[in-house]
Amino acid sequence: MKPTSSTYTGMPTTVFEVMSGLAREHGSINLGQGFPDTDGPEDIRRVAADALMEGPNQYPPMVGIPELRQAVAAANKRFYGLDVDWQREVCVTSGATEAISDCINALVEPGDEVVLIEPLYDCYLPLVEHAGGIVKSVRITPPDWTLDLGALEAAFSEKTKLLLLNSPHNPAGKVFSQTELQAIADLLLKYDAYAVCDEVYEHLTFDGRRHIPLMTLDGMRDRVARIGSAGKTFSLTGWKIGYITAAPNLLDPIAKAHQFCTFTTPPNLQKAVAYGLNKGDDYFTGFTEGMQAQRDHLAKGLADIGFEVAPCEGTYFITVDARSVGLDGTDVDLCRDMTVEGGVTAVPVSAFYRSDAPTHFLRFCFCKQTDFLDSGLERLAAWVRMRRG
Ligand code: PMP
Ligand code: GLN
Which numbered atom of ligand 1 lies nearest the CA of 35? Predict the structure, then answer.
């Protein structure tokens, strides 16, 4: 028989699904895959429940219901001062993952070069490769995850179509600085390239840091597609509602890619996310502060066990160097053993690399209640002791 897709045939299941499956199988405390252990704000869920019963439940407009597109435009103005035309510059998708796929499909032609920053979120590479893009990757390096601007420039060429930027960054917990963003913007202008900005953790920047969308820098407004996710902003990861903001020249082909991917997204969830985005500033500051406290709690607990904890400026995640507590073996083996023997689950950071990955970093997720984090830390401490003998 003829071969099936060379991108997807034989591809392993994503590390998040694998580790969550193993955690379920072993009744482990899952600090791997990034999802909160609470169910999102009750008022937002109530709006969704009411809208489900009241309807309409038929196909909503292809690019999203007007209330949500208006709310996305208003949030762009409120948080970043961006003026966005909700009718021509916003598209609602079934999660940020679909949004990333739509943007890549709409922008990348076979043979185009695409700059990716490693470690990278797992869907980027197959999506770019399947679109025929040639990946040029640069790295941010632990422990402080700095971006080598010389290496970044070297990754660009006349063939560069696109850079995919994730800030705040999963798994590094890095928030790209104004200087780094300016260097990226300069390169996009110099090489006449676009950026797709995965900003799903836009409301999770800590210690007073501001999230700066690349789109707000000079010359970037019509070169950048900016992606948000209600899953992250409202702790409703199972809802899979994403939104793209881009100038009409970009949004038009992106919406056409969306048209033949999912076409549209459940209307009741869209209505509830519109309500959520219009919530007062206290929701957003409370959300950030609450998550920062959980970061502090997990970081302290990991440091108390003896781990060297990398700085976490944003997102749901903390990374640690396994060698710092004397753990031998690869991150993949350690994460499996930690789940099976220790009853606590993390994600191996090597899964976020194309090749030549460092194999001693583990990623822990802190968007969990304090008791849950404490139980995980207790088990982890016991396992590390046992493992060291
Ligand atoms: N990008 C990053 C960096 C993520 O961590 C995630 C995980 N949720 C996504 C995109 C996907 O978001 P969604 O669940 O809205 O598809
Ligand atoms: N973004 C989540 C994480 O990094 C996982 C989402 C998924 O499983 N697709 O853990």
Answer: 8
